[in-house]
Every structure is written in structure tokens, then in C-alpha cells.
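Posting here for the record, re: beta-D-mannopyranose.
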Amino acid sequence: MERIHSGDLFQRHPDNPIITGADLPYPANTVFNAAATKVAGDTLLLMRVEDRRGLSHLTAARSRDGISDWRIDPAPTIMPDPESHPEELWGIEDPRITYLEERDEYAVAYTAYSEDGPLVSLATTTDFRSFERHGPIMPPEDKDAALFPVRFRGRWAMIHRPIISTVTIGGHPAGGAHIWISFSPDLKHWGDHRMLIAARRGAWWDANKIGLSPPPLRTDRGWLILYHGVRTTASGSIYRLGLALLDLEDPCNVIARSDEWVFAPEKDYELSGDVDKVVFPCGWVAEGDELRLYYGAADACMALATAKISVLLDWLTRHGIHSG
Ligand code: BMA
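Prediction output follows.
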């Protein structure tokens, strides 16, 4: 088997960045952290757009090839609605889209920025033109949420990232910003909460905070997870990406987790922007073995990287830390 280095798993598209604020049909500050899916033959990005007040809304962009000729909605596709949804007072951010096979509709989990901190809200749609808002499904502080496309033993499952204040119990630090999984019979009432993947500690690249990036991707070897890890340094945070694999039947079972990061800020558009040294994907689209990863770069633009799913899985099998 060919030896592949963790830094060669994803290839950046030569036309990066693929969408910037200048491409929007209306004035805004930046566009970044888009969700991605396929709708009616198009690749659809539901982009986070930050306006010139600093508040974010979501705007859809459609493309036939998922790379170029983006058709961007002429006005915001979903605006925060603080009158009916006070939790959206300071904007809506970082969506993740999951097509729910059984309901034949798309679920959009997004961050609502409330006065009490960010929380997880849910909306559903069939066409990304009209949406049904279901309101908050996790209280603050919680973000980086995405649903699985299918039920497990009758229950929906969602990955998310609550922040739990750090305390010391028996001399050991507890709490922090880890990845959790929760279950629901109806997409409204969530419970059976468990920590799924913990942030590492000390010098690790994913030592300070971690969170799910795109929604879990079903493969024949398990649910492929891409997550961001934050390392806090003297010159600010660095957002990098790692892989994990969950058992297909029981997603609480983490089969493997990468030790090294697999993608990190390197290019100018990733190193410098509104927030430097950030790569932040919220969506990917798989076609056969080809994966297109859409990521926000430096909180300032949208970029694209590609990978082969089989290569990611082979690498993870070889280099992952196995726990299942
Ligand atoms: C995270 C999220 C992302 C953002 C990142 C870097 O906490 O808020 O939306 O891209 O910080 O600023």
C-alpha cells in the first residue's frame, strides 16, 4: 500500500478561494463556514455571511460542478428572526446540512447567537427557499452540531459541542470543550447525552477545544468524522482538522481517531483574514470515492479541498489510534 503523509490527504483547489465577499450580490463583510449538500443536481452551499454590523445570516449559493459559476441568492436566504426567536439576537452561524432519508427533507443545524451565548437551533427545508424553524434544541453554550441521516434503533442522533466550565474534581481537571452525542425520538426532545471524543490536553494540536466540522459521512467502514481542534498559542488560536471513525451500527463507539492533524492553515487566505490561522469546514459532498470539502478560511472566504474517501480511510486505519 502506498505510504501517504497526513499533509497530502487533501488537495487544495487551484482556484481558491472559490467565493469571497466581493462575489456577493449585496454588501457584506465576509462569507465563510458554509454547509454543503446536493439539491436537484446542483451543489448547494449555505454560506455564513457576516454583515457590516458584525452579525451573521445564511445565504445559498448553487453551482453545477461545485467549483465555479456560483449562483448566489440576491438577498439573504435566512435572516436571524429575533422577534419570534430571541435566541437569534446576535445572528445565525455555521450551519450543517443533513438529508434525512426517511423524511425526504434536509435538516439544518445551526448556531443561534443568543444573549446567553451560542446554542444549537434546527430548521428543516426541502428546497432551501422556504424553511421551517424548530427553535433551540440544545441550550447555551453549545455549537458545532449536525444530525446523522438515519435513526439508530429508532432514535435520531446528533453530534454537538457543549462547553462545560472547567472544574477540578479529585485533583483532575473536568469539563471543557469536547464532542458529545445525543439521541431523540422526534428531533425535538434530546437525551442520553454522552461524551464521544474528548479534547486532548497539554501540547496536542487538539488540546484546547474540539468540535465536529461537516456532518458524519457514511462509508462502508464506518461514519467518517472530520473535526476541528484548537490549539491556543501566545499568538492566538490555530484551527486544524483531524479524522475519526465511528461504528456504523453504534455511533457511540469510536473505532479510530487520527493522532496527527490532516489539514491546517498554510496558504495566505487561511493564515490571514478576519481571524488568522483558521480552516473551518461545515460541509462536504461525496460523489463515489471523491470528496469535496468546503471550508471557511480565516473567517474571510470560502475555499475547496478534495480527497479520496478510500485514501482517508486507509490512512486512518494505518495511523489512527484505535479504541474499538
Ligand atoms: C469558532 C466559530 C467559527 C469561527 C472560529 C474562528 O468558535 O465561531 O465560526 O470560524 O471560531 O473564529
